[in-house]
Amino acid sequence: MIDSKALPGGSMTLCLCLFRFSYFTYVPPNINNLQLPSAAVNVVSSSTTADNLVSSTTAGSLMENVTSQAHPKSVKKHNKHVSYPWRDDPVCKNFTVQLAERDSLPKWALTSFPGSGVTWTRQMIEGITGIYTGSVHEQDPSPVQVEGLGIDLLGITDDPFCGCTIIDKDHEATITVKGLVDYFRLLHLEGYSEIFRKDYGYRGVLLLRNPMDVVFTYRHWQLAGKVGKAPLESFQGPQWHKVVEFVAYAWADHAIRWIEQIEKGTVIFYEQLLGQNASIELERLLDAMDFKPRPVDPSRMRCTLDHRDRTDHKRLNKSW
């Protein structure tokens, strides 16, 4: 396993980013009258700006982005696509996940930097609510792969603007695999900086993960997709240095912009979802979204957490 302490070139840049993530202050801020965990505070309040995270950016011609946001699709008949995510578990097998009625739910963003565990988080949100999450990204697979059902039979492929999903995955401009130049192009020329206002009405949940981990998962995702592994040599040399600089800048810039703009929503943490506080983190998310009924069915919560280690989209047998 690569020792993150031995990161070449861009290690100081990323360490600065990590410092901003992990620094704790005494008074957590509030979003929509909900107190944020103090780990999020310095992403907003640190005197270090996002511009300080990288010493310079490389000038060059603008590049085409390989991934685009999906446009609304016309769906003639609303199919709720009922599925049973835990049908092999005798205790949990009767719980379902399905689409809500069309146009019955407000549009919410679940945004994160790629490699932050958003698909895994969507599995848990679907588990505790019984409602599908969606994705604005084309050809994005369902977070739960049900044996015997193709992707086209699951709710994820329904129009993401249908008003029938509980929340929708949106990486915004961080979706690029081409670095800072393309990130700036998407934000300022393609209008991605306006997505939060135009598409979501400032309703959003920001998922944060330690950037020292994200830089590795992003590199795997960049070169090998959702579950593949990048070759070991991809984590060294000039191109790796550029990836480190990109993640350090864009991770913080994306987090700052969304936290500053959120009018209704919250920030959740990948690391909190791993441990014993996962139920508290999920309840806090639903509180921010004013989800009803509350509290969550304790049996649903228990089944969700018992199955959170499922391997649908995990990058297995990782050695680095």
Automatic annotation (TrEMBL):
<protein>
    <recommendedName>
        <fullName>Sulfotransferase domain-containing protein</fullName>
    </recommendedName>
</protein>
<comment type="similarity">
    <text>Belongs to the WSCD family.</text>
</comment>
<dbReference type="InterPro" id="IPR051589">
    <property type="entry name" value="Sialate-O-sulfotransferase"/>
</dbReference>
<dbReference type="InterPro" id="IPR027417">
    <property type="entry name" value="P-loop_NTPase"/>
</dbReference>
